[in-house]
Each structure stands twice: as C-alpha cells, then as structure tokens.
C-alpha cells in the first residue's frame, strides 16, 4: 500500500465514524495498517470458502448509513471495521494487549456471509470474524457489542482457552458478552451508548428486544440468573447467565439503576444487597482472571477462585474489591 489514511464511514448502528484505511494507487482500501493490518472483506453472499473481496472505494467515504439489502453495500463493512478497530483500541488502551494474540497482528472480518444468515461468529481456523446480513438481508449482525463479542472469542481462545461446552462454555460466552459491553462503553458513541444489553441494535427478535440482559439474564426467556447443578446442560449462550449477572452486580450492584437512559433491576439469589465497584475495576478483574488464572476446564467454582485471585493480585486480599467479588458470586449462587 502507499499510504495510511483516515476514511469516513457511514455506519448502520454507530453513526458517522472515522476508519483506518489505506491508499493503493488511486484506490482506497478498507485496510487498517495502524491496527495490525485488519482488512474487511465482502463475501457478497457467495458460498466459496475464500475470504471474499477486499472492500475498496474511490473517495474514502464508505457506506450510506442506511439499511440495504444489496450484497455489495459498504455499510455493513463500515460497522464491522469500526467494531474491529474499536475492540483493538479497547484491548490496547485498557490492558496493553496488542491484538488477539498480543503479537500486534490483526484478524480480518468478512460481511454479507450467506443469505439472510442470522448469526455472526469467530473462527480460529480463518482467524476471522464473520457476519451474516440477518433477517431479509437488512439487519446485519455487525453492531459494536456483537463485533466485540466475536473478536473476544479470539482472545479467549488464545488465553484461557475455555472449552466451548458445559460450564466452561458458559464462561467463554460470558467473557465475550462482558467485553462486548465494555467495548460499547469504551467507545462512548452517541448513536450506540453503553449498556448492559447484548445485541440491542440488531433487532434479532423482530420486536426491538436485545439478545441478552446482563442485569437479569432470565429476561431473555432462556438464560439462568443463578448457578445450579444443571446449569452445565444449557446451551452456552444461556449458561453464560450467572457470569454475566456476576459482572453486572460487581460493576453496578444490586437493585434498580438507570444508566444512559436504560433501566436495570438486578436481583440476588439470597436477597443480599451487593454494592458495585464500577465497571472499570470489574473489567480489570475479569481480564486478569481470564489471562492469568482460568484454564480450558475452569467451571463456575473455578471462576470464583480465579476472579478472587485476580482481585487479590490487583487490589489486595483485604480490599473492598476482593470482598465485592466474593459477594457478587455468592449472590449468583456460586459459593
Ligand atoms: N454468535 C454465536 C457466538 O458468537 C455464534 C455461535 O454460537 N457459534 O457464540
Ligand atoms: Zn459467542
Ligand atoms: Ca449492548
């Protein structure tokens, strides 16, 4: 490439954003050389297994900011690229982590995958994030929290390596939700302000409701609020519930609260009152637990131990933070 550029992206979910781009000859590429070389590709609903075609543009202004059913539309690519660059910046600024493997090398993203495909996923094999266009090909699954969720699967895979089934699978999913939320708050984007909901922008249920709720996971109709001996039998997107709930309680505390216009009311299993320590500290504790203490087979009891070890290392074993971690786990029935 010839030059490092900053483009303008008109996203579907996050308003107008700056994008890291490159200039090759007289053509701009959706290629972010400043963040490990992340590229965004168009799968254009083709079924071939390749990455797809790198998005290019003549004037470095990308997308329209509106939903489109076109398989070549740039708007979904803008959201995916913005999600990848913001998640990169979050890990760098918050933890000093240089990309998924902490080696300065980016994954890539591909959009317009499948036809009316209602999912997004991370793959270790391609080292990439993939996004479908959603119902009627007009609701791409490219919102910021979803992109951060998928990229975080890469981080988990390259750190604790939590097995994607049973309780460790629930913890793997919760890790993606926790950092998905953290990235959304980090971005402080007025079109998509931070919340403790997952997927509130993509209208996956067709009624405006989010995919998941961290303050009270059972609000989705399937997730568990509290640990029980049968939790391991649930799908990992539902056994994530108690860990998401732990993260909310540790950050914000129990009871009613309104943040950025969204109202929450987080219950506890034992009727206790939990006082939060703030999201910034909760995120540091979860990251240290993930990268220093959890392993592929960590279960919920092990997550309690790992986060207590992390809180002890970061803040001391007699700290308010350490006690809050214990109280928040007890409140989701992990004693
Ligand atoms: N969107 C899902 C996830 O990230 C994809 C899947 O279940 N494989 O967990
Ligand atoms: Zn996931
Ligand atoms: Ca969200």
UniProtKB/TrEMBL annotation:
Its cofactor is Zn(2+). Residues 160-334 form the Peptidase M4 C-terminal domain. The keyword Secreted applies. It comes from Streptomyces bobili. Extracellular zinc metalloprotease. This is Neutral metalloproteinase. Keywords: Hydrolase, Metal-binding, Metalloprotease, Protease, Secreted, Signal, Zinc. The chain holds residues 224 to 558 of 558 of the full protein. Residues 6-157 form the Peptidase M4 domain.
């Amino acid at each position: 490439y010839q030059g490092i550029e900053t483009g303008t992206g008109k996203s579907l979910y996050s308003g107008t954003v700056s994008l890291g781009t490159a200039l090759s000859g007289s053509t701009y590429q959706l290629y972010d050389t400043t963040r490990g070389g992340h590229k965004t590709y168009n799968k254009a609903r083709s079924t071939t297994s390749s990455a797809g075609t790198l998005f290019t543009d003549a004037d470095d202004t990308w997308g329209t900011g509106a939903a489109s059913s076109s398989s070549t539309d740039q708007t979904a690519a803008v959201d995916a690229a913005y999600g990848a660059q913001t998640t990169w910046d979050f890990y760098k600024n918050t933890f000093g982590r240089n990309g998924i493997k902490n080696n300065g090398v980016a994954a890539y993203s591909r959009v317009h995958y499948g036809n009316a495909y209602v999912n997004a996923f991370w793959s270790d094999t391609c080292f990439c994030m993939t996004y479908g266009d959603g119902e009627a090909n007009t609701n791409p699954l490219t919102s910021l929290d979803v992109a951060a969720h998928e990229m975080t699967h890469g981080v988990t895979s390259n750190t604790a390596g939590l097995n994607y089934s049973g309780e460790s699978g629930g913890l793997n999913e919760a890790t993606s939700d926790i950092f998905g939320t953290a990235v959304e708050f980090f971005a402080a984007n007025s079109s998509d302000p931070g919340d403790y909901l997952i997927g509130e922008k993509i209208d996956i249920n067709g009624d405006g409701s989010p995919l998941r709720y961290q303050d009270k996971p059972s609000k989705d109709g399937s997730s568990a609020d509290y640990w029980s001996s049968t939790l391991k039998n649930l799908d990992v997107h539902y056994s994530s519930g108690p860990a998401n709930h732990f993260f909310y309680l540790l950050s914000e505390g129990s009871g009613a609260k309104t943040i950025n216009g969204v109202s929450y009311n987080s219950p506890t299993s034992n009727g206790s009152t939990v006082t939060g320590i703030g999201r910034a500290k909760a995120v540091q504790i979860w990251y240290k637990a993930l990268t220093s203490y959890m392993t592929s087979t960590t279960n919920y009891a092990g997550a309690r131990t790992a986060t207590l070890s992390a809180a002890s290392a970061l803040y001391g074993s007699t700290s308010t933070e350490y006690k809050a971690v214990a109280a928040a786990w007890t409140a989701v029935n992990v004693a």
